[in-house]
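# nightly structure sweep
# worker-07 picked up a monomer target from the shared queue
# config: single-sequence mode, recycle default, output format = C-alpha cells
# input follows
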Amino acid sequence: MLETVIAELETNGLLLKTDAKLPNVCALVAGEPVRGSWWSHTMSHQMFHVLTEVASHRDVLTAKLISSKDTFVHRSLWPAFLAVAMSRERWQFAALDAKARALLKRVDEQGKTEASGGAAVALEKALLVHGEQMHTSEGSHAKVLTSWGKWMESAAVQSPELTAAQGRESIEKAVSFLNRRHDGRGRLPWPAARTLTTP
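# output follows
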C-alpha cells in the first residue's frame, strides 16, 4: 500500500491525510471515501500504519498546508513549499498572538523545541515551523517544532532558489488542479489564494 500512496503523491505533488473529496491517504487505504473521523473506521489500524510510513518517507514533508489539514508534500514541491514557508511574509504573522510569537522566537533560537496548545498549532498553520509528533522517553506523545533551517539541515536539503511568489504559484497550480479534478474546495493559507475551484 505504501508504494501506491507514494505513487499517488508523486503524481499530484500533494496528498492529504484525510478529506471528503481531495485525494488522501485514508481513502486510498480504505478503497473508498472515509466519512467522519478515520479513527472510528474499521481499517483505522491499517490507516495509522500507512500514515506513519508515509510521514517518515524520505521523499515526504508534512505540513498543515491545504485547508489547515495535515498535507503530505512530495519532494518535487519542496523548493516551492520552502520558498513560501521561509519567506516570513506578513500573512504568516497575522493570526499570531504574543504566546505564539514567543514560541517562534524560541524555535528560531533553539532550532527545535517541544510545544503544545494553540500557539504551536498557529505556527504550523502559518507554515513558520515544521511540526512532528514524537514519542518521548516516558512513552507519551509530544509535538516537536523545528525551524525550517534546522529541518533542511537534517534532511540534507538545499535552500530554495525560488522566490516566495514563484513558490506560491507552483503550489496554487497543484491545488487548483486537484480542486478541479475532484470537485474539491482546498484552500491555502496565504491571502492571494482564494478557494481554488473552477469558475
